Each structure stands twice: as C-alpha cells, then as structure tokens.
Amino acid sequence: MPSLPRTSREVQLATVPDGLPKAEHFVVAEVPLPAPDDGHVLVRNRFFHVFAALRTLIGGSVKGTPMPPLHPGDTLFGHAVGEVVSAAGDSGPQAGDLVSHWLGWREYAVVPVGQVTPLGDALPDPVAYLGQGGLAYAALTRDAEIRPGETVFVSGAAGAVGSLAGQIAHRLGAGQVIGSTSSQEKADRLISELGYDAAVIRGAAPIEEQLAKLAPDGIDVYLDNVGGDQLQAAIAAARPGARFVLVGALSGQMSPHGTGGTAPVELDAYQLILKRISMRAFQGFDQQARAQWLERFGGWLRAGDITFPYVRVAGIDNAPRALQEVIEGRHFGTVIVQL
C-alpha cells in the first residue's frame, strides 16, 4: 500500500452568507491526516454528492432535522463513496474495501465502523451508489402506492431525485409522467433522455395552466420536491383520490430570502377535502427499503432500462463552485465531486 500523506484537504464553511451561499463563503482547508481509533476506519474518499439541502444547514438548520447546523469553521458533510485505507481492529471493513458513509467534502475521513456501509456488487458503478433514486422508489411504491396506468407529476424533475423518479414511475407502470423544470433545454432533455412524457417550465406560463393542458383528465400521484406554487398547481390538477408525497421543499430552501429553513405555501383545504386528496410526508429510507432498491436499480441499470444522469466535477477545489451551481439550478441530474 502506498504511504499515506500527512495532511488532508476538506471544504469548510468560512462565513454564514446573507442569502444564498456562493463559492466565496467556503474555504478548502489543509488539516492533519486523521488517524483511526479502535472501532473506526480511515477512508480515502473517491466521490461525494453535492446536494442543495446544505443551504438549510448553513442557514441554521431546522428544529427536528436529523442533520446538525453548520457554523463557520465546520467541515461540510454528505454522502460519499471511498476506499478503506486503514482500520483499527479486525472487526468491520478492512483495507481495500469500498464503502459509503456521510463524511464527504474531505479527501480522507475517519468514520465509526457502524456508520460505514460496504458497497458490494449490487450496482455496476460505484458512483451510482450516490444516486437519490431510492427516495423516489420508496415514495412511489410505499407512500403513494402507484398503480398501473396512472398519471404522475414530479416537481424538480431535473434534480437528483426527479431525474430518476420519472424513469422509475414508468418502470412501475405509470401511464403518463410529467415533470417540472426551469428551462426549455432541461424540459427537452427530460423527454428525450429520461422518458418523461411531457414537462412544464417554471416561468413560461402559470404552472396550473400548463399542467391542465398536459393532463386534462388530472393527475393521480404527485411526487413533490419543491412545494410552493407547484404544490398549489398539483392540487388544482388532482383527480379524486390522488396521493401526494412530500419529499422536498426547494421553494423554501432555495429562496434568496431568509435562511432556507421554512417553505410556506397557502393551500385550498376545501379542494383537499372535495377531491379526497391524501398528502403525506416521505416516510424515510430504511435498510430494508435500501436493499430492495439496490437490487432493482442494479437490475435496471444492467439491462439498460434506466440511466443514472449525473455531472462529474473534478477535484475538491471545485467543490464550493459546484455547490453554488447546484443551488442556482445550473446542472441536470446528480452532481458528484470526484477526488
């Protein structure tokens, strides 16, 4: 095994921004290489996921959120894939094993053995383990209980969850899948590359009007990554008995005002009652759901039935800029930093 460096680099929050975070609010710091104690492993990270929800943690987090807020001097964190290079003790993963964990945004990480997950060979590409399709799969199968032939609307369809959600919905038997996005270019890619049947574009016309034209008979399932006026539009378009699953709240998280910790929206409760719309929050992604998802995702990838769209950003120095671009909605699919 090659000798290890004495230092590691990591992305730290330099200052709390007034508004949306930009690259200058972060610093790539050089720190002493951490050493694992008993019950820990040292992982050389190879890839980590850049996700927009960090904005909320930078702004102070939200009460009840399982992830802690970030303060100046703190290292960012997130889902990562790496190789174990050193382990203290014989229990758990050993040197050379590929694992996933939640201490991304750094070149090397010391992780408790209980917080690393061996990757195995369920997926053909290690990068695919950073995909967010498992959330969409659990939301559609368990929370919405999608049925064959139904019309599905996915907001934020070009993001990490949405770029897989449309493909998954079709694999589960959806008759029509409509996505929302921010530009005509992304809308075209949703249809040509990801199998969406149609797309609505924010700012082109009221979402409610666009959705009414594309789904004149209404929608049966709504997978909501955004909230705001798109949630309002989905209620207007809902068929009787429609099922809504709230996965994200990007309308609030990506607002330039406030801290990204609230996502207020005014809903017509009368329509919820009249249409018998069920609305529930995403119920989480446990180990059983993860195992089922990886089995199906791996099979679909190998058969060519589904693609994993992602943007690969080279080097930790470019990670702060990548986060700014994700928050600004510049990318299509999942954004991954390769180290």
Automatic annotation (TrEMBL):
Q: Where is the Enoyl reductase (ER) domain?
A: 19-337
Q: Which domain of life is it from?
A: Bacteria
List the keywords (alphabetical): Oxidoreductase
- Check the record and name the InterPro entries matching this protein: ADH-like_C, ADH_N_2, ER, GroES-like_sf, MDR_fam, NAD(P)-bd_dom_sf
Keyword Oxidoreductase carried by entry: yes
Database matches in Pfam families: ADH_N_2, ADH_zinc_N
Protein name stated in the entry: MDR family NADP-dependent oxidoreductase
List the source organism.
Answer: Nonomuraea guangzhouensis
